[in-house]
């Protein structure tokens, strides 16, 4: 039983007490003094904390030829006694006529450079250039996913508020958990990803997101919504999560509207609404079939900004059972004890949606390519 409890705590955890609203300090509080902060090179350092946390650097590619790809490095620490690193890659089958090319491979002999800005492992390297404006990722970890990509930002990156972090804990001076997101929302992408069958040219647009969950992920968030929307002129990005009842089911939303060279708006006064849903039989979650995203705020010179992306999601790209690799009996107990049942629904509508943007009364509409996720955890 002790073994089972420890395994559950690692994989799914048990429910926390209800701490109440005072046990969370949303990053939204930081926006009272600064809506957002532009990223410097130093802000992109890996943290590699010695307590339970999950740190990710994720790259999304929307290629000019229609390809959609995600690559990701995960560095995690469990209870300060065990660290792991993983490389994930996913080439989405956007036509929906076959499986996705998905790989998740452990990394060995991983290390950071002295500055903590670059990362390496056997058959993998992630390098930030001297100017802090471009990442180059090369991986031969999996022969069915040979990666050679360079992401160059065309707009300053940002965090919301001062440091982009929401803090968890009943003592504000000594938080026991945190959640941070840093964004390069608008990048040019050059390079390829090679499978056993083909080499895919990934020239196009991309997004880079650095995230740190400084606590067990399912204790920090019960649900997530994410959108990456790219038009020829604009990028609209939003990340929203809702905490479990332990932290008063608090909604934390960060996002922005950008174009090349300019952050038009970035802040927390945004919203996501699942306007139509259907009950998914396999996961037993209310899968969205139509979503409305809204950004509301001001430019730096206090001009009103309002933006919307609203419409049907079309046929979903994928439904990911996060615990698929967990032994069945642990999965069952985890779900019944902790209420943890994580599934990710992924979308990229073939019928392009429209970004409707109004800045200081001037309206613009542009169709774009979208990648979106709706995640249910507990």
UniProtKB/TrEMBL annotation:
InterPro entries per the UniProt record, alphabetical: AttH-like_dom_sf, Ceramide-binding_SVF1, Svf1-like_C, Svf1-like_N
Pfam families: Svf1, Svf1_C
The keyword Metal-binding belongs to this UniProt entry's keyword annotation: no
Top-rank lineage group of the source organism: Eukaryota
Cellular component, GO annotation: endoplasmic reticulum membrane; Golgi apparatus; nucleus
Gene3D superfamilies: AttH-like domain
GO BP, one annotated term: response to oxidative stress
Membrane topology: Peripheral membrane protein
Keywords from the named record: Cytoplasm, Endoplasmic reticulum, Golgi apparatus, Lipid transport, Membrane, Nucleus, Transport
Location of the Svf1-like N-terminal domain: 54-213
Location of the protein in the cell: Cytoplasm; Endoplasmic reticulum membrane; Golgi apparatus, cis-Golgi network membrane; Nucleus
Job of this protein: Ceramide-binding protein that may transfer ceramides from the endoplasmic reticulum membrane to the cis-Golgi network membrane, and is thereby required for the biosynthesis of complex sphingolipids.
Family statement drawn from the similarity comment of this UniProt entry: Belongs to the SVF1 family.
Name of the featured protein: Ceramide-binding protein SVF1
Organism for this UniProt entry: Aspergillus sclerotialis
């Amino acid at each position: 039983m002790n073994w089972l409890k420890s395994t559950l705590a690692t994989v799914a955890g048990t429910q926390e007490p209800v701490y109440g609203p005072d046990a969370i300090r949303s990053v939204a509080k930081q926006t009272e003094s600064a809506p957002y902060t532009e990223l410097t090179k130093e802000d992109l350092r890996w943290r590699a904390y010695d307590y339970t946390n999950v740190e990710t650097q994720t790259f999304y590619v929307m290629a000019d030829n229609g390809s959609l790809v995600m690559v990701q490095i995960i560095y995690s620490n469990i209870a300060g006694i065990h660290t792991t690193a993983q490389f994930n890659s996913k080439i989405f089958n956007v036509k929906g006529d076959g499986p996705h090319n998905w790989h998740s491979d452990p990394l060995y002999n991983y290390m950071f450079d002295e500055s903590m800005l670059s990362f390496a492992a056997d058959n993998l390297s992630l390098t930030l250039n001297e100017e802090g404006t471009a990442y180059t990722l090369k991986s031969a970890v999996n022969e069915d996913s040979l990666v050679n990509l360079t992401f160059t930002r065309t707009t300053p990156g940002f965090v919301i508020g001062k440091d982009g972090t929401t803090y968890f804990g009943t003592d504000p001076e000594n938080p026991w958990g945190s959640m941070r997101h840093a964004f390069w929302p608008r990048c040019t992408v050059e390079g390829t990803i090679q499978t056993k069958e083909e080499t895919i040219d990934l020239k196009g647009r991309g997004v880079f997101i650095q995230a740190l969950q400084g606590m067990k992920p399912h204790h920090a968030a019960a649900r997530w919504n994410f959108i990456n929307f790219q038009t020829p002129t604009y990028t609209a990005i939003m990340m929203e999560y809702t905490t479990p009842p332990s932290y008063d089911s608090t909604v934390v939303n960060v996002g922005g509207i950008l174009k090349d060279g300019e952050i038009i708006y970035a802040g927390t006064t945004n919203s996501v609404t699942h306007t139509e849903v259907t009950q998914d039989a396999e996961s037993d979650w209310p899968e969205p079939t139509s979503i409305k995203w809204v950004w509301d705020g001001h430019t730096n010179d206090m001009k009103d900004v309002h933006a919307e992306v609203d419409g049907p999601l079309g046929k979903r790209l994928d439904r990911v059972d996060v615990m698929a690799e967990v032994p069945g009996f642990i999965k069952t107990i985890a779900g019944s004890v902790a209420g943890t049942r994580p599934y990710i629904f992924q979308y990229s509508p073939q019928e392009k949606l429209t970004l409707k943007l109004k800045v200081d009364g001037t309206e613009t509409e542009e169709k774009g390519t979208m990648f979106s996720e709706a995640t249910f955890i507990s």
